């Protein structure tokens, strides 16, 4: 166990904080001179209902601080699950982040994006010194609730909200009723089946990865590099569904453990990394055999084709 007394490595501390799942936002503002800023942040949280207050935090090193400090308002755009590209765009330092980006003007001319799960348009209520961040508190003056599925951030990667299985053991009658859904119109729907299948299988892989002393992000990245050893950062980011910063941190963690080595700006799996991959692939293959062992090779190929068609629809 890592404690504050025996270690306080900033990167390891940040990884530990990543166990707390959060939503993803882009916070925007417009300064008195018309200069607009936007930053991707997952530090958003509610503070008070009366008055309606929310908060988020901004790195003191951010070049956007002066604009947020001077702006009368800011908008917290709650990203929807299909807005990963927008999240990544505003997470990267750029001279003009709004070039080619469509938005409307909210209160104080702060940019409001279309397609979000919702937004909170706030007046600047208070900012507090919070170590290496400024804690920004806003008073909500206007909000929009679009009800779209949110983009989630957990253990260094993007995720989606899925229905959780019941927290208690169901009664026999409830089990029977849930099973009967497979024989209904809903149970014949491919999207319903895919969501339920992922929901049922995902916890197993989380635990198996932890047994191998790998975070989900590290295991995912190692598997991708095994199949695409020359992948660029952008390609790794897309294949692993992780923000660039988290990809870089996972790469550093894998290098520190001796699983990767950097050669000419490419990341190669080492002998120790291949040994870890063998164990990782073993757990993946065993899970596949346990779950799909009753299918013939032909049926498995049809299943793979169906899943690839779903992926191609992105």
From TrEMBL:
Gene3D superfamilies in UniProt: Electron Transport, Fmn-binding Protein, Chain A, Winged helix-like DNA-binding domain superfamily/Winged helix DNA-binding domain
A GO term, aspect molecular function: FMN binding
Keywords in alphabetical order: Oxidoreductase
SUPFAM superfamilies: FMN-binding split barrel (SSF50475), Winged helix' DNA-binding domain (SSF46785)
Domain Flavin reductase like: 17-160
InterPro entries attached to this UniProt entry: Flavin_Rdtase-like_dom, NADH-dep_flavin_reductase, Split_barrel_FMN-bd, WH-like_DNA-bd_sf, WH_DNA-bd_sf
Record PANTHER family: FLAVIN REDUCTASE, FLAVIN-DEPENDENT MONOOXYGENASE, REDUCTASE SUBUNIT HSAB
Family membership: Belongs to the non-flavoprotein flavin reductase family.
Protein name: NADH-FMN oxidoreductase RutF, flavin reductase (DIM6/NTAB) family
Source organism (scientific name): Pseudomonas linyingensis
